[in-house]
Specification:
By secondary structure, the chain is of the alpha/beta class. The protein has one domain (4-143): DNA polymerase III subunit chi (Rossmann fold). It has helices at 14-27, 39-51, 82-86, 116-132, and strands at residues 4-11, 32-35, 60-62, 73-76, 90-93, 107-113, 135-140. It has a seven-stranded parallel β-sheet with strand order 3-4-2-5-6-1-7, with helices on both faces. The chain is globular, with a radius of gyration of 14 Å.
Length: 144
């Protein structure tokens, strides 16, 4: 399996766009592991999933929660579980670095805002993925 990494550039707000992407993936019946080792960012994303859209419900728990095996979205502050990747879950990276164990997942989703620091970190992740031999695709969100 060759991992494909989809970069979505030009998001007005990275975490809000990540909420929308997460909702769409769950609606499509997909499991998603959301990774960042930044606890504050993961907590903010957790809160946003409850608030970003008044009619949306995105079932999610921390990856070590007892309900994790039955929940479509897992929030992971440590290395994502390779078993999840092998079972077809996708990985949404909210970290500034490439996620550990990304090659165990069929697809990695990267959302990039227009903030200069976010774009610079994304460029570095792109190069790292490229050097590792991942298949890369780029999508411009501001064009849609």
């Amino acid at each position: 399996m060759k991992t494909r990494v989809d970069f979505a550039f030009g998001a007005p707000d990275r975490l809000l766009k990540a909420c929308e992407v997460t909702r769409k993936q769950v609606a499509a019946g997909r499991r998603l592991v959301v990774y960042t080792n930044n606890g504050a960012r993961l907590n903010k994303f957790d809160r946003l999933l409850w608030q970003f859209e008044s009619t949306a419900f995105v079932p999610h728990v921390m990856a070590d929660d007892p309900l994790a095996p039955n929940t479509p979205v897992l929030l992971e502050p440590r290395q994502p579980d390779a078993v999840l990747g092998q079972s077809g879950a996708w990985l949404l990276n909210l970290d500034t670095e490439c996620p550990p164990g990304a090659s165990q997942f069929e697809r990695v989703l990267e959302i990039v805002s227009d903030h200069p620091d976010d774009k610079a970190a994304a460029r570095q992740r792109w190069r790292s993925y490229q050097e590792t031999g991942f298949e890369l695709r780029a999508f411009n969100l501001s064009a849609s």
